[in-house]
Amino acid sequence: MKVLIYSAKDYEIPYMEKANKGKHKLTFITEALSSDTAIKAVGYDAVSIFSGDEACFLTIEKLHGFGVKYITLRSTGYDNVNLRAAARSNIKVANVPAYSPYAIAEHAVSLLLALNRKLIESNRRVEHFNFDQNHLIGMDLNGKTVGVIGTGRIGSVLTKIMHGFGCKILGFDLEINDDLVKKYGVDYVSLEQLCSNSDIISIHVPLTSETHQLIDERLIEFMKPGMFLINTARGGIVNTEHVINGLKKGIIGALGIDVYENERGIFFKDRSLEIPNDDMLTKLIAMPNVIITGHHAYLTKEALTNIAETTIYNLDCWNNGTELENEIPLSVEKV
Q1: How far is it, in rounded angstroms, from Cα 187 to Cα 180?
Q2: What is the overall mean pLDDT for the chain?
Q3: Given 216, 283, 285, 328, which residue has the most CB atoms within 10 angstroms?
Q4: Alpha-carbon span 221 to 252, nearest angstrom
């Protein structure tokens, strides 16, 4: 099968080539998929895309016209794919449902620890031989209440880690995970109760029509003053403007994000010579109680291996005409 890999990063190519073992003809390009770059897929059977690519209605119509039959995502989320258009064009879509929940959960905890213990500021001072300790006070995590929004694979790992710190865990999900209740004493509550009682909130739900801008000014008003908010899921789950207002009011005491609602077209590239014209991102970067990482929570050796192997597995199944459990039902509505 001839496959065009959009948004290919230098670090992931060796993993993809190792997993492929020469079975498929892979072509790697750095450009992201869009309606403008879809033409590059002429002559290919399949394309592989990442979360920053845009498979909108027009793009998929073009891919269909160019003969593309398959789209395999190198990510779990597929909110960037218009599934209705894919169904109309008879293009099959698959994802990587679970590449490494540990990578994401551990990154979320890293953001929390860095914010809590003021590690960025402390390191910045030491680089200038400034060993003053004023304004570096954090808090013990032991005994604090952590609200986990979404207790699936990633949220479950986050729960296990925070339980290890001695935290009380509040959970919110459509389904109660009985295993988490038994092992870690998770107390499932309403979203409003979770916001009202949590010292720390970590988001681990997919982006859907129900979760789009879930964290808004209404929920922020329920939050404990000075709470920590962590988001390693999808940027669109929070209303960034409302979160900035929450930071200014002191309701949100610290914010750690690996994702940003307007990240498409900004993240995954060096923008230092062309600073993006994005007022909200500029405001967040300027705030001392905010840490932003550029959607790299997934970047572990184990995750990259799993992503590559699952991507090739998806292609193998399509090529061999075998059943593929990772295929996304095309009746699912896109946000």
Answers
A1: 9
A2: 96
A3: 328
A4: 10
Establish whether 263 is a catalytic residue.
yes
Candidates 12, 54, 261, 263; catalytic one: 263
| SS3 call for 153 | helix
Map out the domains of the chain with their CATH numbers.
2-99+301-320 (3.40.50.720), 101-292 (3.40.50.720)
pLDDT at residue 65, rounded to an integer:
97
> Which pLDDT tens digit goes with each residue over 15-46?
999 999 999 999 999 999 999 999 999 999 99
Catalytic pick from 234, 296, 323, 327? Answer: 234
Amino acid at 22: G
Beta bridge partners of residue 313, listed in sequence order: none
Backbone φ, ψ for residue 46 (5° rounding): -145, 160
The alpha helices in the chain, defined as continuous H runs, are 13-20, 57-65, 83-89, 101-116, 119-127, 153-164, 178-184, 191-197, 217-220, 240-249, 279-286, 301-320
- pLDDT tier at 265, thresholds 50, 70, 90: confident
